[in-house]
Amino acid sequence: MAIGHRVSRENLEFHWDMTNRKSWKGKPTTNLNYTQNCLRELKSAHGFNQYSTDADFNSNHPGRITVTPAGSTSQNRGAFVNTGVNSGTWQPKHHGYWKWDYELKQAVFYMNDEDGSWKAWSFNTGNTLTGWGLTAGDTFSCSWDSWTSRIDKAPNCGMYMRNSAQSRGFHAGQANSQSTGKNTIPFKWQRLYAVFTVPSNMDEGGYNVSWYNYGHYTGRGLLKMTNFQWELGTPSYFVTDASGQPASSRSSTESLIDVSGNNTITINSFDYQNDGSFVFSDQNHYASVSGTLATGCDGNVTMMGWFKQLSRNGPHQTIVCTNTSYRQGIKLMSAYHAQGGALWVANSDGTDSTLVNTGGTTLENTGIHHIAATRDSSTGAIKVYLDGALVNSGTGVTGDVSNTSSTGARIGIEYHSGGYGANATYYDTRVYSRVLSAGEISNIYKQGKSYYDSL
Predict the structure, then answer these.
(1) Between residues 58 and 163, the one the model is more confident about
(2) Is this model's pTM higher than 0.70 or not?
């Protein structure tokens, strides 16, 4: 049920949010060190233990827990407490260690800098610059979630490497030299990052690089860090996978998962824009979807999307469809000939179809719009909404529509795929396996209106 401008996620089968890099939580990426993060598990799944029977150590490291990194069952993150520093007098010092964070509900790396002594968490990546595909002039980025008690207290992060003269150090720099590597608000979790360039004259193939996080620089205070991510190029905001674990290893050629978690999206021949959206401009620009969009949306359904339709490069411009075949599935269009947007619904045996448009007015080059359409399988009723208001209705066949393919769902293209695709920007696409009410559709439109008006 809708509450205010909120709407239920009940029966949300597919949601591809391409705005603000949310599609699925960011651009495709390769996180080169995701195994150094802690699993997102219930607090009860972690082992609370003492490092030793030393009273000084235990009093200075309250709440220390044993945790296991993503992708590993043997490594113990709880062992990283910097015991080999401070001239051997580690017992009375405050070191970095893993601790449960009640706000994030996960284990985080905790550095309580009361004494200014050396505090760090580091790990060897187990690979060389060459092994990661990096050479002089290439960029790489480190990113993490960060919390600090004072904004002049920041984790000094960097990649430790060796040059051709066998000198080891942070030759590419450290995060404290970049404003993006510092919190702007105290006592608040924020996503931070730093972008580096591989210098010349590095020992690219003969030395395994390491990541270091230091927590004892500048004034005294408290630092917390988690969700460490190292990737080639500039940073994305993509950290967690579908199971909620801080592990992502998808590359730019691999599949994405939609926000609902029910579908796999495979993009074809197009890239993210700066705002996270995609621009579709020809028949080669589309996305294939496998999952409940193709298999669970042939009865009651609601389809919707925010879009900007440019001049048509063909009579049909399809936002989303459950099947690309002619007279198969259900197709939501941002343009249908000169009749504006439309919902196209196959009948039960694939021999005919019903189409209801937005009222006969073209939407080409008229800015950003929201279109939504519902289909009731028990009555055959079809309703089409434009910018939150009902604009047209019709009646088709009852029962499930003909949908012979379980892998034919697409974004940006449909049965005329051999000749053309969409020429539009699609920002947000949702499909429900139920009929949303007029009030729910209006609320979704109101939720997004101010944002899309600002674009």
Answers:
(1) 163
(2) no
